[in-house]
Amino acid sequence: MLVFLENIGGSEVVVILLFILIFFGSKNIPGIARTFGRFMRQVRDASQDIQDEIKKSSTEIQREININKALHEANIGVNNQTTGLAQEIEKIEKAVKSNVNPITDSIEESMKDQPNQNP
């Protein structure tokens, strides 16, 4: 609860209580105890609020890290797919060129063999 209360012995507590009794009187002790109890509750509530806020912040940060990790993995997957598709397109392009080049070459040769027919 409070760190300083762990280091106080029994005789020290008695001396403190006697001091309070002499200084404040027996009529004011219940009010002081209530005030001290309220103060302790407020301190406990405040520390709990701080702990909750820290947990909430760490949860949000962890969520953002997970989202960034998922986006990075998705980006890698898309890049791999894109690379694979580009390689496939290059293969298809080479195959088409290998089939079309002989045809275009033969057309060009036949065009060269024919005389110009410009009017």
Structure, described:
The chain has 119 residues and is an all-alpha fold. The chain has one domain (9-103). The chain has helices at 3-6, 10-24, 29-113. The model has no long low-confidence stretch (mean pLDDT 84).
Could you list some keywords that capture this structure?
mainly alpha; 119 residues; 3 helices
Helix content: over 70%
The mean pLDDT is 84
End-to-end CA span: 108 Å
Number of β-strand runs = 0
**Largest sheet geometry:** none
Low-confidence stretches: none
β-strand percent reads under 5%
Q: Count helical runs.
A: 3
Structural class call reads: mainly alpha
Number of domains: 1
Give the overall form.
rod-shaped
Oligomeric grouping of the chains? single chain
Question: What's this entry about, in short?
Answer:
This protein is an all-alpha fold and 119 residues long. The protein has 3 helices and no strands.
Give the secondary structure arrangement, pairings included:
Elements: H1 3-6, H2 10-24, H3 29-113
